[in-house]
């Protein structure tokens, strides 16, 4: 004989609530991941488009440079899963090979200008952070709404391959003392999804820096 389930409907629904909560949570996570993937993909595509067509000089990928018939092709290097892109402007300078090379674990002192990146030339843009005396002096004259009172003019010391400013820290490896470097970062390699100072949420950023000194470890 079949047994009739006389459990009240509201009780059965109460017991099913955890299942619904899990399902809705999974849907929310998937939607969030999908949005993150779209933002990242857009930033990657836009950055590559700028480097290969809008940047001066126009760059090619490191893989393409290996096949290039040019003697000294200008190229960019990709880090992570397309999260950061590095260009060394001094790559072919005479005597560069004799300068100290940065390896993982070494400390590099850098002077930099950091920008929110809009996939266009930053020649006339104002940085959101800098430790260059000339940049800070110019901002003091023009203003720009930035609070630069506490900006330091001391070099920023970063450990190559370290966790601090991971996009820059990874890109330091292989640079040499005296190099002029540009690093273009998606939000994943920069500050993640958070808002940092005047940098909006999920913003791509670009750092232009000079390696002042390398300390080997």
Account of the 3D structure:
The chain has 217 residues and is α+β, with helices and mostly antiparallel strands. The chain contains four helices and eight strands. It has helices at residues 9-54, 62-67, 133-142, 166-172, and strands at residues 60-61, 75-79, 84-88, 107-116, 129-130, 156-159, 180-185, 205-215. Strand 2 (75-79) and strand 3 form a beta hairpin. The radius of gyration is 24 Å and the shape is globular. Residues 1-7 and 9-31 have low confidence and may be disordered.
Defining key terms:
globular, 8-stranded mixed beta sheet, single chain, 217 residues, Chitinase A, domain 3, alpha+beta, disordered N terminus
Could you give the topology of this structure?
Blueprint: H1 9-54, E1 60-61, H2 62-67, E2 75-79, E3 84-88, E4 107-116, E5 129-130, H3 133-142, E6 156-159, H4 166-172, E7 180-185, E8 205-215
Parallel strand pairs: 1-2
Antiparallel strand pairs: 2-3, 3-7, 4-5, 4-6, 4-8, 7-8
CATH topology: Chitinase A, domain 3
Order of SSEs, N→C?
HEHEEEEHEHEE
Query: Count the strands?
Result: 8
What helical percentage do the residues reach?
A: 25-40%
Low-confidence stretches: 1-7, 9-31
Outline:
The protein contains four helices and eight strands. With 217 residues, the protein is of the alpha+beta class. The chain has one domain: Roll (Chitinase A, domain 3).
């Amino acid at each position: 004989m079949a047994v009739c389930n006389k459990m009240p409907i509201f009780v059965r629904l109460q017991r099913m609530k955890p299942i619904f909560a899990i399902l809705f949570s999974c849907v929310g996570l998937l939607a969030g991941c999908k949005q993150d993937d779209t933002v990242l993909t857009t930033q990657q595509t836009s950055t590559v488009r700028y480097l290969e067509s809008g940047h001066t000089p126009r760059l090619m990928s490191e893989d393409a440079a290996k096949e290039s018939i040019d003697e000294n092709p200008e190229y960019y290097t990709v880090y992570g899963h397309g999260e950061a892109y590095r260009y060394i402007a001094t790559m072919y300078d005479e005597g560069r090979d004799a300068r100290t090379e940065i390896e993982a674990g070494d400390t590099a002192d850098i002077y930099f200008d950091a920008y929110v990146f809009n996939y266009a030339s930053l020649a006339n843009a104002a940085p959101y952070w800098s430790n260059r005396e000339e940049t800070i002096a110019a901002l003091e004259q023009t203003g720009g709404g930035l609070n630069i009172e506490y900006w330091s003019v001391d070099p920023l010391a970063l450990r190559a391959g370290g966790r601090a400013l991971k996009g820059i820290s990874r890109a330091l490896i292989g640079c040499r003392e005296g190099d002029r470097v540009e690093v273009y970062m998606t939000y994943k390699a920069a500050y993640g999804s958070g808002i940092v100072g005047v940098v909006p949420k999920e913003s791509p950023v670009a750092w232009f820096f000079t390696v002042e000194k390398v300390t080997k470890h």
